[in-house]
Amino acid sequence: MQSFTRIISLCLILASPFGEARVIPDTTQKPAPGNEAQQTPLSQANYSPAVNYQLQCLGCHLTNGEGAPRNDIPQMTDFVGNFLKVEGGREFLVQVPGSSQSALNDQQLADLLNWMLKNDGIAGGSSPEGFKPYSRAEVSAYRKEGIQDLPGVRRHLLEQMEKIGITIPEAVMP
Ligand code: HEC
Fold first, then answer.
1. What is the distance in A from the centroid of ligand 1 to the CA of 163?
2. Ligand 1 center to residue 74 CA distance, Å?
3. Pocket of ligand 1 (CB under 6 A)
4. Taking a C-beta distance cutoff of 8 angstroms, is the pair 109, 123 a contact?
5. How deeply is 107 buried, as exposed, middle or buried, from its count of CB atoms within 10 A (0-12, 13-18, 19+)?
6. Protein residue with its CA nearest to atom 13 in ligand 1
């Protein structure tokens, strides 16, 4: 019985490279009826910030920005606005890879961050009073700069927050 199983396994191993289905693109294939239009790149689509959040951010940050600390995604809910209270925080929110490397154009990213930072948004009142919305030009400039030593910068920003009396919840992952 054992040797029978062994023979079967051997046959399967030998046969698999030849037996696997191979998908060869059919260059003459046409789109399904009703599906002929070229897809619009996200940066040219006119979606609302809420939809852009769903398409580009929600996968990691979850529905209300609650994040998934178990998977190293920090909580933004009721907190993310605090970054704007310390020096360098305004740049940071644009320069994190999730923002800067998204498929959104600069105006869309500015609108999305402003939407998140509203008092009735993900920031939940954590943004400083009189928060000045991001402009397209500002986002564009920060995006070009990039960020060196992201974990170090983030840690420093959170330390600065603690110094001015802001409590850092566990799920923000200090
Ligand atoms: C692949 C997962 C992922 C996606 C997608 C993602 N992020 Fe993030 N985001 C993170 C992680 C992880 C951090 C923590 C800092 C870091 O390591 O980048 C973070 C941090 C942030 C922060 C700073 C908050 C903090 O506590 O550090 C902002 C603001 C942010 N993301 C915005 C966005 C926006 C806006 C989008 C969508 C356009 C987005 N992210 C998409 C994973 C993601």
1. 24
2. 8
3. 56-57, 59-61, 72-74, 76, 80, 93, 96-99, 102, 104, 112, 150, 154, 172
4. no
5. middle
6. 73
Closest CA to 96 of 72, 78, 66: 72
Report d(CA 138, CA 117) in Å as an integer: 16
**Phi, psi at 77, each rounded to 5°:** -55, 130
Note the pLDDT tens digit of each residue in 128-156: 999 999 999 999 999 999 899 999 999 99
* Residues 75, 68: Cα–Cα separation, whole Å: 7
Domains of the chain: 43-172 (1.10.760.10)
pLDDT of residue 91: 97
Place of tokens 């046409």: 30
The model's pLDDT over 68-81, given as tens digits with 9 standing for 90+, comes to 999 999 999 999 99
Atom of ligand 1 nearest to the CA of 75: 26
